[in-house]
Amino acid sequence: xxxxxxxxxxxxxxxxxxxxxxxxxxxxxxxxxxxxxxxxxxxxxxxxxxxxxxxxxxxxxxxxxxxxxxxxxxxxxxxxxxxxxxxxxxxxxxxxxxxxxxxxxxxxxxxxxxxxxxxxxxxxxxxxxxxxxxxxxxxxxxxxxxxxxxxxxxxxxxxxxxxxxxxxxxxxxxxxxxxxxxxxxxxxxxxxxxxxxxxxxxxxxxxxxxxxxxxxxxxxxxxxxxxxxxxxxxxxxxxxxxxxxxxxxxxxxxxxxxxxxxxxxxxxxxxxxxxxxxxxxxxxxxxxxxxxxxxxxxxxxxxxxxxxxxxxxxxxxxxxxxxxxxxxxxxxxxxxxxxxxxxxxxxxxxxxxxxxxxxxxxxxxxxxxxxxxxxxxxxxxxxxxxxxxxxxxxxxxxxxxxxxxxxxxxxxxxxxxxxxxxxxxxxxxxxxxxxxxxxxxxxxxxxxxxxxxxxxxxxxxxxxxxxxxxxxxxxxxxxxxxxxxxxxxxxxxxxxxxxxxxxxxxxxxxxxxxxxxxxxxxxxxxxxxxxxxxxxxxxxxxxxxxxxxxxxxxxxxxxxxxxxxxxxxxxxxxxxxxxxxxxxxxxxxxxxxxxxxxxxxxxxxxxxxxxxxxxxxxxxxxxxxxxxxxxxxxxxxxxxxxxxxxxxxxxxx
Length: 653
Fold this sequence. Notes:
The structure is a single chain. The chain is of the alpha+beta class. Strands 5-4-3-6-2-1-7-8 form an eight-stranded mixed beta sheet. It folds into four domains: 9-198, Histidine kinase-like ATPase, C-terminal domain (Heat Shock Protein 90, 2-Layer Sandwich), CATH 3.30.565.10; 214-327, 2-Layer Sandwich (Ribosomal Protein S5, domain 2); 332-512 and 605-653, formyl-coa transferase, domain 3; 513-602, MutL, C-terminal domain, regulatory subdomain (Ribosomal Protein S8, Chain: A, domain 1, 2-Layer Sandwich). The longest helix is centred in the N-terminal third of the chain and has 18 residues, at 164-181. Helix 1 crosses helix 5 and helix 16 (446-456) packs parallel to helix 22 (612-623). The protein is built from 23 helices and 24 strands.
């Protein structure tokens, strides 16, 4: 058996350093957090060659006494923790007493520090954890730590460092996280002699966000705030229209400490459900505050993982705070313009630079209610030969959101829903299936159509829309609305789809089904056959009734009341595909996915001719602020301000 040896203190320190100091970014994180604990108001971080050869962090904190300057580099030496009780409620960024010892063990360090009020300071020079020089020194109040030749005595660690550019990017991100978590701290970051960012340190979260993350991110942020039972959360979340391709722009802070939390991440993303495009992720900067005893930060040496004593309470608070912020969002989205158009539209010079993030957001949306304008009737649209439809359900067509108009000889006429009287006509003895024809939608009165639209939005529209004027419909797809000094373009399919989805989702009972006079045959493959058998109860609760009819054949006896029978097969195929992709979906997610499909099939489509009263109801639902995004996360409206139009036409410069 090999002989057991006791490692030397120097070797033990080098091994322990691997847990704390992974790369230059880890050094910056630890040193900046020390500056925060020292009460610094201004911090400067400078790196060279990605931090591998030189890192310097200077602050104006309380500084250290000469006797403490040497002890600071001993393992488990700290001024932030005194006894076991202190470990139960940690209020400082650091507490282990390992960071400086770990950093000094694998680098060369020069420390200069002076306490406030002292006549002179102290200088300490270390190499591989051993003090080489120590004595009095002239320096400003605070502390300056210069770290050079990182990992010079551990070549294996040095070999695995990435390129200077990659390491510098990680250093910038580490410093930015510290600055973003403390708006009261002014932090300047310098890389190879060039300033990368600067935070103002005025204590305002919005200006900190604007200066660190930039105007493009700040202008799409919504303020978020909530509190309850000794916990509070505040910060900013992005508009659903500004979703990102990854989670890199999600920042969570607990009592000022940057953390990585799957719990908070899940709470935020659950709030965006049915508002954000699939595959997109929200951006957020959220600050969580709670008692120090309610959170355990002593989980990992990096101190980025925490445990909450009441996870459900924290989840609910964050979830409802984000949901409330999304509910209060501006009713229209700003269109994405090409770079060439953006140069023409946006004001020249430093116009935006002199504005705060809040002012920028307010000016970015021209759809604001103001003085009333006389209401006029919509421009009549030419009616086609009539949209053929089954007499049993609301309107719907194919699976696409937009139809090429060249494929139609005439624009289709449609409606949003059938009134009870209309349904009774459709279910009379003259069955469309028996006579080989379908009733013409043009036969129904406009009064009946208007009543149907009111039924469609009864669970969505809860406040009056501002005074507006409908100018007409473009390309049988977009409703054109004049609202004060803005033009609002509304996607009628997306708006109606959201209205139907919200109405179906609000029903606590099973979705109302309609029995088909002429059942539809559905062919299922082996995998689809298994899915139908496994999810039969779920499909039945949402209005689908199927029964076997031969090998791999099913008869669809009933479909949701909002769906056309001819769309039942396509809808069922789409639903089964969603169930197939989700190997073990939870019931709520599966139900929402099916409702997405039902709402899409039941909504009016691009390319259809729509009555002006139906357009009015859709516009009112959108302008009232309750319909902002379709269930898939696409915006239902965009706004063009008078200023933007004047610039496009060169009326102003």
